[in-house]
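We emphasize that the prediction below concerns an isolated chain of 318 residues; any contacts that depend on oligomerization or on bound cofactors are therefore not represented. The input was used exactly as deposited, without trimming of termini.
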Amino acid sequence: MMKLVIVGCGGMGTYQAQKFRALGAQIVGAIDHNEEHLGRFCETFEVEESYSNLDMISSFSLRADALSCCLPDCFHVFCCEAAVRANLAVFCEKPLTSTQEEADLLARLPKKHPFMVNFSKRHIPALSAVQGVLSRGVLGKIEHIQISYLQSWYKSHIWGDPEEVSRWKWRLLPAYNLGGCLSDLGSHLIDILFLLFGTVRYEKKTHEVTTPALVEYGALLRVGNNIPCTLHCSYQDPEWDDSLQLTIQGSEATLTMNTSLDRKQVTLTTKDGISTKVEGIPSVSTYQRFFNAVRSMTTVTPAFEDGYRVQQLLEVMR
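Result of the prediction step, given as a token string:
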């Protein structure tokens, strides 16, 4: 059994507690400055030990196996540093940190236990279909890539009024979410590009909308063997509420993925217009992978290094 401490007991902390407890983890501690969130969380998950101060992370050394950081971005560095120093395995929400300086601080710490950054979009079944198509080379020479993560909640209020719902409110405050939608949604896109093509290089920003938080962002990148790639992320998309999209244009065929339409399959369209569906293989979730790694004390991906390289690119893209 994995003994887990959850830090940040709002929407994401509750979601993660459900996921980990379903795998057999025991939630042995909770930390949150919001008394209402903390009380409700502890009652729901029968947590006996709770605190309002991050300084108490160290008290779980030798009494817990792992810690999950579900805090706003600006608190990741303090939480993860305390967890590593307490010899706890770390499951950190993306992005790794708010700044490169903070990421460098964590990089200097010796890590004896698994450290995972929760790039959960890696394990969408459709993405495994993308990897299969690329490995077979059926697209021919890749000529252009478009990748986007589009949400609507800032204007549609589909998940509640962002001025009232804390889960969304902090995302609109630069002091808590320095990179706005780029750090939040764009970090997933950058991680996917690294996963699929190995290298990602920033060329230039194409547009941005700030309110003052960054709610929409676009950029031109180069990936793999100097392939041009356009990246777009938004909190205010007029069409899609929560959609991860990818188009890879090749000399022989084009691949399209849209998770709002199909999370399991991608569409492959040849130059003569013939389209076929390619189904992906269900993969193990980040929660299961972390749970297994803590039990076996093995390395796990997406690891600290994956979060670090994404943070390096976020730093120059802002």
